[in-house]
């Protein structure tokens, strides 16, 4: 699926306009920021990238006339460069690839979008919707999952194992197909082939095929239980399975996977729910989720509200 994030597009367009010294439409800009918290978040991301690009541009050599006076056209050139930098950021947003410090590549998907990343050694990473992962070309067997989830199909190398960092935790492969999900409350690692080691220098837990490890964020606690092999990476086939997650977490998951906006009613946000659902029918008819899970799902504003019955 092609990258299509209208909020990021709008944020980049605002960055171009605001970067113009003659910009005066601050009321409209403020209104846009206040329409949705996602607008401000997207603009902050674009603005940070613009600032980095502008700083890099400022460090380039500038050739001045022999009298050392800046050319009269300098303000026009600076205004054009501001627009060019923001337009370049828009192009980067469009392909979902960000270049960070020291050459680190960051791949990011929008809600409803997935991406397959092929590594030089033949390994692959399936990046789920609304997820972000950083790869360092100088250390190709190291990755950092910063958001969301991904399925890893890794070519094993005893002398150089693949390592995934997720926050303060580390997952080391031992010839493996495994999935890692970074949720709002916990980290989960599921294995369908081979073996992974969770935090070798800490808990040192082996996770084998048909097992799911869960660890609350910020905690050293670990639990391991059995899951069906086909559940590992099942989101690639358009399905998600969940057990005793809060309605708030379910709303997050559905928003990420479908590209639609789901919210949990405040009174029901902590209520737990279990089930297995296909995303395509829910994307076509969000209200159909209600009978499947015994919940109330109704339109509200620009999205759908989920609450317990």
From TrEMBL:
The keyword Transmembrane helix applies. Pfam families: DUF4880, FecR. Keywords: Membrane, Transmembrane, Transmembrane helix. The chain crosses the membrane at residues 80-99. Residues 9-48 form the FecR N-terminal domain. GO terms for molecular function: sigma factor antagonist activity. This is DUF4880 domain-containing protein. Residues 106-196 form the FecR protein domain. It comes from the Bacteria. PANTHER family: PERIPLASMIC SIGNAL SENSOR AND SIGMA FACTOR ACTIVATOR FECR-RELATED, PROTEIN FECR. It comes from Aurantiacibacter xanthus. InterPro entries: FecR (IPR006860), FecR_N (IPR032623), Ferrdict_sens_TM (IPR012373).
